[in-house]
């Protein structure tokens, strides 16, 4: 049985075909990622590729010879790019935070507030849709502003930024304390 037939049988629900296909793909994907990353990162990326493959298996359409393998390696390539993008953003953020920490004008409290702001921003970014996250990541990476091109990424970026602003504003506001009652006035008669 060739790989395309094996993939069709696995997608149709054949458990034996699924096991055999998973074994074949696991070793190939592991080699692919180990050539680019450390073993622990490669293992994580193999798992992410399998999860993405299972989540989008209904969208697979066989086109030509070895279509399934090409499709799976396309997913692996996207996972590889996403990991590089996340690492690049984290490296830039770490560099900026290190610069802020070394600045003598800013004290420890300013650095702690900055770290808390970064954590809040990360939490808000996780609330965005995948398309909005990609638009924000592209904006942060390229810092292109309004020159995003004719596709929908400008709209996604605008919506993502609006959602981030609302989320950050909501998380940064603290409940106001009720005003303390004014001290009671005691009316004393004027002295005569």
What characteristic shape results from the CA principal axes? elongated
The CATH top-level class label of the largest domain: Mainly Alpha
Helical proportion, percent range: over 70%
CATH architecture of the largest domain: Orthogonal Bundle
Quick one: how many beta strands?
0
> Measured on Cα atoms, how large is the radius of gyration?
27 Å
CATH fold-type name of the largest domain:
Rna Polymerase Sigma Factor, Chain: A
The major pleated sheet works out as: none
Structural class: mainly alpha
Order of helices and strands: HHHHHHH
Intertermini distance: 115 Å
Task: Tell me the name of the CATH homologous superfamily of the largest domain.
Answer: RNA polymerase sigma factor, region 2, helix turn helix motif
Question: What share of residues are in beta strands?
Answer: under 5%
Quote the average pLDDT: 75
Query: How many structural domains?
Result: 2
Helix count?
7
Unreliable spans are 144-150
